[in-house]
């Protein structure tokens, strides 16, 4: 798996606590995503993609987070 793709996943997961309400995540869902961050593997990318899609459709103001979500989505579309 591409290092840039994994870096995008990490960036997205690290940004979730600040935007969990806008993305519509419960505390439990947020905890599950943060557990992924501890030992992120290529097999976890599909789970991060789910939250990236939520980020794209939310009203969050964090442009960097939205951009990383877009990068991840585009990369998965190319696969």
Radius of gyration over all CA atoms, rounded: 11 Å
Global structural class: mainly alpha
Strand content: under 5%
**Whole-number total of structural domains:** 1
Low-confidence stretches: none
Helix percentage range: over 70%
Overall pLDDT level: 91
Largest sheet: none
Q: What tags apply to this protein structure?
A:
globular, 0% strand, single chain, mainly alpha, 4 helices, 79 residues
Explain what you see:
With 79 residues, the protein is mostly helical. It has one domain. Helix content is 77%, strand content 0%. The chain contains four helices and no strands. Helix 1 crosses helix 3. The longest helix has 21 residues. The radius of gyration is 11 Å and the shape is globular.
What are the SSEs and their pairings?
Elements: H1 3-23, H2 27-38, H3 45-56, H4 63-78
Helix pairs in contact: 1-2, 1-3, 1-4, 3-4
């Amino acid at each position: 798996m591409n290092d840039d793709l994994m870096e995008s996943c990490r960036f997205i997961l690290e940004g979730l606590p600040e935007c969990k309400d806008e993305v519509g995540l419960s505390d439990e869902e947020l905890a599950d995503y943060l557990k992924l961050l501890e030992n992120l593997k290529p097999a976890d990318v599909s789970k991060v993609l789910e939250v990236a899609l939520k980020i794209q459709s939310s009203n969050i103001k964090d442009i960097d987070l939205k951009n990383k979500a877009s990068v991840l989505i585009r990369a998965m579309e190319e696969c």
